[in-house]
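I have been asked to look over a protein record a colleague put together. Thanks in advance; the entry in question is below.
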Amino acid sequence: MDKINQEEWDATIAQMHSAPKELRDHFAQLIIALSKCYLKDSGCKAVVIVDTGASLLTFAAGAEEMEMADMLMQANETVQAITMQDAPPKEMFN
């Protein structure tokens, strides 16, 4: 890791130490799952989307561009299904 990334990593991790336990546990699960996507032959793939307020940043781990596009389409369909499952009937037709 280069010096700039190392400094930013160290500062971020230092801030995470003061976060609530539930947040730290969630962060740890995310980092573990994401790390597996970088290991050869793990079969894991991930797409991470970060909204900076000014733009969306996307990162793919263990996935090619087309796989990333497919994953995003599947995620969109899943989120829509979850969102609509509790929606009033008239909302499902909008």
Observations:
- DSSP finds three helices and two strands in the chain.
- The chain has two domains: 1-40, 45-94.
- The CA atoms of residues 84 and 92 lie 6 Å apart.
